[in-house]
Amino acid sequence: MTIHTLEHFIDGKYRKTDGGDLFELISPVTGKVHAISPNATQEDVDIAYISAKKASKTWGKTTPAVRQKALLDLANAIEDNLERLVNAQSIETGQLKHMIAQEEVKASADHIRFFAGAARCLEGKSTGEYLEGFSSSIRREPLGVVGQVAPWNYPFMMAVWKIAPALAAGNTVVLKPSDTTPTSSLILAEIAAPFFPQGTFNVVLGKAEAGSRVVSHLTPALVSITGSVRAGLQVAASAASNLAKAHLELGGKAPVVVFADTNISKAIESIATAAFFNAGQDCTAAARILVESSIYDEFTDGLIDYTKKNIKCGTPDDTHALYGALNNKNQLNQVQGFLQRLPSHANIVLGGNPIESAGFYFEPTIVTGLQQQDEMIQTEIFGPIITIQSFQTDDEALEKANDVEYGLASSVWTQNHSRALRFSRDLDFGTVWINAHIPLVAEMPHGGFKKSGYGKDLSSYGLEEYMRIKHVMSAYET
Q1: Is the pLDDT reported for residue 1 higher than 70?
Q2: Which stretch is the leader sequence (predicted)?
């Protein structure tokens, strides 16, 4: 394999770093170096923001129809570059190629098409005479320049979730992808360049310090991150110091509440898939299961049996596997650390070990016997691990479900319509699925409560995050 050195993408072209250090990118498939990346200096970030600020004077004044056309062209170009994107990302993430193609690249093209249309369907308070002798109207305007940081678990799709509403609203972007998975974001910027004014979409590479330079810069009117709670707190503090808006999509610890009246076999199949998909590296993963005590043994035995027979970990070309490698060595160590610190009252009833390989692969794992305040119940694991607890009453289920610092997503499994509605009201999470877990659509918002952050991705609410509202009041007589 040829080891190539990556470059930033600034002002519509690739650009070498201005004196920054370089670091190696390790493929989780092989455990070997596959590329070299620059670590953006302050000067690199400054140049990117200068470029974005210049472009905003043009892009920010385009009509919604012009923005729609550019975004639709980008969506088509993404599909034309599907194979290139899939191959590049699979090396960096260890994800399955068929999953990247369907769940990231094709889905992202659809998300861009949604925002292309949403740009032409802005809503607001109707123009009217709210004070005698005056006419009032609302203008929705772009914020200007935004700074964004994307994660490594779905690197292409998360980059699209960031840039699509920002560009649709008329903003320009400086994006910093994860230091372990930058290539698909670079390809995205490269194929977008012909459709947008030069400097509209810029990508700077680097580690955490590069991300800090992006979000602490004085230029952006909004900074956005998808990442850990710790990283989100740092971004919020940086934004507050500059009085910039912050958009935070942080961690999760989704409760999956299973009642005795559900279709157990269908629930097991759906929940296992939603838990182990992408090696559990998903903030909404169905990894914290709460089962009504009367079916606890039946459900647990059924889940173990289903996982043994049907949940397979594989390399990127394996079309029969559900998930691939963990993203990096640190993540593999983190997953192992949770199990090594497991309290004596808990039991590993399935899996629990890395898969012998040069890469970073881990068995599907199920843990029982945990208590509510144990680390594995309270802390996001981000790996292929399911925990199972029991409950006896609806109130106990709700109390355990809500008793975490996160508030991103949840699900309830029951045939009782009234109970489902009650839980959808009382679960303290930004998304509640009923008899399902993990599907998302562009038309509906995604975002959390509590320490899962604030602000919405997807939907018209996601577009509004990237706009400001101006009141224009005009006197009839002068």
Answers
A1: no
A2: none
